[in-house]
Records
---
Amino acid sequence: MLRSKFSWLSLLSVGLFGLTLLAPHSSTANLSPERTTLPLPPEPDSLSNAKKPADITRFSQEEWQEHTVKIPQNGSLGGALASVNIPASVTYQIGQLKNSDLLTNLRAGDTLTIWVDKHANLQKILYPKSKTLRYELQKQGDDYRIETIEEQVDTRLEVATGVITNSFYLDGQNAGLSAKTIMNLADIYAWDIDFIREFREGDTFKVIYEAKYLNNEYIGDGDIIAAQVTTYNRQETHNAFLLKDGDETIGYFNEEGKNLKKAFLRNPVDYVRITSKFKPMRFHPVLQKWRAHRGVDYAGPIGTPIHVTGNGKIVFRGWGNGYGNYIKVQHAGKYMTVYGHMSRFGKFKQGDHVRQGDVIGYIGKTGLATGPHLHYEFRINGVHQDPLKMAFPAAKPVDKKYQTAFKKQTTLMLSQLNRFSPELQMARFE
């Protein structure tokens, strides 16, 4: 069929450019018409020797001057163009374009490549936003147009597995996981696994995740598709599977469709050690007497970010004699969390609503503290609870409309996870 198509195109070309004519005849009833083919007239010298439009464009671009401009602190597009003698009127003209913010929202350190013609008129701007995304401004007549150009990225599914011998972070790196994916994995399990306390030597992890490649060069990771983590000497297995609706991430769920996200984070800080647990009576190192310790102390470097463990409202932010700089957050009526000994507060003020994971302050040693740490309390109806032993309520399970597709995906991903041994470091789906 393809050959036939090209044959018809050939015939059409002959009809158009061979200029076949039918010669008139006095009697045409019984005679076949005579055909006379007239050749096309030769191309005039004035046209054959002239530059064709493509050549004109090429030669004109060869005369352009190229400038590379790095945006300084508090710099702007207008400043960048002014540095190559382009007037402010051109900056104003660009600013009137509907998508002008693609070029005007610049940050310190961004680099622009600017081309001007021999008359110092702006012809083109190239703004590489990332390895895969760039913005281009082109002159078209008396106007300009900004285009968004995205490079084609190859997404591959890869598997990394490992055994805990040191720490989750180091063992994750040794298994080939990027820092981003290690942190994402910790976030997925933040409601179920205490990465500080629950891992034992010999516990395992398996991760199926997206790896991004541009021209066969690795450029970073995408989503975690599925994961499996064992804790308490491999006695407990925790599975996680991604559910998406198009480009929208619904969440991570286990094989039963239960949401891994809970109402509260297990820990308010990342990768620090617990120095004091919830105890009815504890000898206070500053007061030198026995008293109840109604929270958990997390030791860490001064300045370590503190995350609010659930959605809520800051009902107090200020100074307390024992707590030092501290914050109280009210959650869903009966729940309250308290964060003490901060070196400084975050951007949120008293009365502000905060979302789970927001940074509300930083570890310090203000108040009655012998060293830098966070004192964290969890209260229900005003009664102190042990946050390490709380069974937090889960978020909504997989919606009914997704259950069939999710079950198929889960079965496939679980079989893939079971294929790989934790001692196998890395694999790639071909």
Note: The chain is about 20% helix and 40% strand.
---
Amino acid sequence: MQKTILHLDLDTFFVSVERKLDSRLKGRPILVGGLSDRGVVAACSYETRGYGVHSGMPMRMARELCPEAVVIRGNAGTYSRHSDEVTDIIREQVPVFEKSSIDEFYADLSGMDRFFGSYRYATELRQRIIRETGLPISFGLSVNKVVSKMATGEAKPNNQLKIDFGYEKPFLAPLSIKKIPMVGDKTYQTLRNLGLRQIRTVQEMPLEVMQQVLGANGGVIWRRANGIDNTPVIPFCERKSISTERTFERDTIDVHRLRGILIAMTENLAFQLRRGGKLTACIAVKLRYSDFNTYSRQLRIPYTSADHKLIPQVLDLFEKLYDKRLLVRLIGVRFSHLVPGNYQINLFEDTQEALRLYAAMDRIRERFGDKSVIRAAGMGARTIGRMHNPFDGRPPVVLAHRKQ
């Protein structure tokens, strides 16, 4: 049976949500992201792109390029709720789907042509999403995920495109090599140095040449340029790690503040582990200094999800990593080597009272939010928290303005 893969993408999602909430923003150039000089553009409207603005750009530069743009800080909770509305519609209509990000979905419609017609079904699904949520959405339909995603990119804004079986290579040939998924700025520059501009040229190159230049990634890029992709639609993907980090509005050498933020981060991540029924065996601390040099250290530990086990280890890593002569720009904590399980009581060190205290605090957090109960040492880091359980299969909301 021939595969039929649908790719759905909510157009300029953060901007569209803001316009839905405030109709006065329609037609105006909009930037969503950090408001400070260190802020980053998380999303921008099509009106700003003619000025050279794009997502991921420093907000200061974006404001200089488009001074008349309306700058909005954005709200992760609001975007999550609107994303969930779209997800519920897709879940109701599609038997197998993958939510790859807050605004992006894949669905496997293989076999639908025998009964209803995949393109017609996808069209009606898109129309329902627009009608019930008021958000613009585009889709691409083809035999695999890569071609469908690139078709969606060509269909935007707020449109749809189907690539018939056998026409994948002709469709891809005239497109820029930068539109191939996995081709970032560095890879793009490497390919441009080779004289490559269009995907057509990559299609004409031998596979071995691409592999010699880019190694294993060269083979992946060559296959994608030729419309070859066997990646399945995965309804749920188990997380291998969990992390959090914060960039400071101003570089700091306040060690007391840094320790407090690390404690708050570790406490919250430990709660997320217990909420998801997970244990970690590897912790890491990350520091970025004012000169943008970034360092990290990690440590293997016995499997645990207890605050009183993790916090001392994190602080110890920080002490070994921190250079007191330099200003700190960013700090972060990561737990990896995750496995299913619950915290096991230590016969000689733990008490029943401590375990009951953890259970009580977790119940309060589940009911009233992550930040409802925190250690006094971490009270200076009130922004540490999450909108939902990171192990429930939903992708994280990434907002570039999360700062401390």
Note: Residues 399-404 have pLDDT under 50 and may be disordered.
---
Amino acid sequence: MTRTVLVTGVSGHIGARVAIALAADPEIDRVIGVDTAPPPSPAGEDGAVLGRTEFARVALRSPDLVKVIRDADVDTVVHLSLVSGPGGSGSGGSGSGGGRSAMKEHNVIGTMQLLAACQRSATVRRVVVRSTTAVYGSSPHAPAVFTEDTEPVEVSHSGYARDATEVETYVRGFARRRPDVTTTTLRFANLMGPGVDSPLTRYFSQPVLPTVLGFDPRLQFVHEDDAVEVLCRTARADHPGVFNVAGDGVLLLSQCVRRTGRPVIPMPSPAFRLVSGLARGARLVDFSPEQLALLSHGRAVDTTRLAAELGWRPKYSTAAAFDDFLRSRGGPGELPRAVVDWLADFVTGR
């Protein structure tokens, strides 16, 4: 039985929700939330939002992490502290303030330190790691649907996808060294929902949406409620292996754009990269190379293995998850039609 759970990345939205849900389970004795800062609380009291969860201000790279796991007799570790952009954008937790090097150190080196602490523990019996379907990449040569056994056609050499690929390599190494520990890796599609802040949700929240001329990629989303549910299920019981997690169905980017009600400017790829660089420099949207690839080529994954293993399917489809996100953001942003027309003329050279 699960008695003591350690959850990393509890300053992030998903990490906090998972910790709260597990702490509410009467069959779990203790939940310890670990991060470099507590989640923001409306009352301004550190850790108050976590409820019964015990908060420990510990960095993944700190030797104090070993002490926390040992002293609390932790038997289950849920690792959610991966950040998807410099400065912690779309993160599972804090701790990566700074540029790309700080992000990589947090994601990769931090995970190595956590797994080393788990390897030395005599009590840890289950490790759950949040990963991403970005490990498959986005490419015109990619298969229509990725399964967990599909090799990526083009491996990312930088960014969040590269970090996640390295993290999974270390997780596999840990599983070989500690076969007595059940290891679960969950590859999530892009999260959507009222509380999600990520490069993709910020893209869809812009008053005008640039797209790549001639491309209409397929996208998949998973609702934050379903993400929390699957993380809690794998924390409570043994489900070894790697699993894709996504809502049923896909949406074309054009369908997403129509749902937002915002004006769209199709532009040639070079112009799109130019505008993306300007937006990234202004810190409006994190248009990383992997984000540009996704908005050009898309990505879809098969979730049959997850349904068979857990006997469960997400409550929200891809379309329902996206619609719930849009409802939480209100109506489209106001941008004068003349401005949209001027931007369209500028990027197309007319």
Note: Residues 100-120 form the longest helix (21 residues).
---
Amino acid sequence: MPAADRPRIIAHVDMDAFYVEAELLNKPELRGRKIIVAGEGRSVVLSASYEARADGVRSAMPLSRALQLSPHATVLPPQMHRYRELSVGIMAYFDTITDTKEQLSVDEAFLDLTGARRRLGQPQQIGERIRADIRAQFGLPATVGIADRKFIAKIASTRAKPDGLLLVPPAQRLRFLHSLKVEALWGVGDKTAQALHAQGIHTVEQLAQTPRESLKRRFGVTGEHLHDLAWGNDPREVVPQREEKSIGAEETFARDIDSDAELTRELLRLGHRVAARLRQAQLNARGVSLKLRYQDFSTLTRSATLEHPTQSAQVLTQTAVRLLQGLGERPQPVRLIGLRAERLQRDDGALQLSFDTRAAEWLDAERAIDAVAQRFPDLPVAPASLLPREARRQVGGGSKLEDD
């Protein structure tokens, strides 16, 4: 059969409770217990063991709420450098299986296995090999879903968790899909599900049997897309080197903050974190967004378009501060603040021509900070206002960055 006519074989590989399992490598005595990975104070849950999930604990849940649901859980602080290290190794391993890999996050990826079949065997064999290799090389469990459509492979891995494998052959595609609730489909969140339920649509089979024009009238383009998915129609391919659409950072405070000065200082910190990641990835941002979460957990975002693309912390921070000031008097203290660089594009090396002289000098200074930080990783290098008090005395007090 010509390669173009061969059915695609797509695997979705997802690590199980990745952060928790990474911690258990060094703490095997905790296996089988309720574990939550989260920062100190009023942070959110980054990962939870399946034992804690049985109590209702979920990722992104406030830690205080998680401990109400699972009061006997052990809370472990995250070791992000360790998780990144493991992720790099796992993604490099995937490259030995196929040259068509689409990384979705630190712990999951799509793999196009179509070309690997002759070398590695049948899809089921390849899936078992992937799971066995990850267990042997990294000591971690992984779940694999395999199908000829990306979204079905992802659904399959979700249903096979934890530490499982589910293969959906092309001939069984519709039987598998039509046995699911509509919530299983990509793009069906709580609101969409409620709207579908209001139309008497609770299963994918019912969705498939609903006239396409009826769905289009009720839900627009989304309705047409969901109808396509209900019939297994999804032309999306595995796309290597997936481009980041945005880069952001946020901070949950140990106590609610109502001070403009403290919020501005935190935006400066976040601006430098985001800008450093932009420069490392050789990306520029055309937009900036501000995120605030208030004391009652209500959340708002505001965004702005930049006059010129940038990777400068000074520009990102000034824009975010203007967005903050534009909110006027805040109704409540703030528990979380975030800054995100959006509408990213590749750095073509010519953007400095559009900057004024002062902005160009700022960017040069930030790139110099990058170089110093890379050469001396243990040396605190940052705007003076963000350094510990002792470090500020060592470098001689204030700086231009602090004044601006």
Note: DSSP finds 17 helices and twelve strands in the chain.
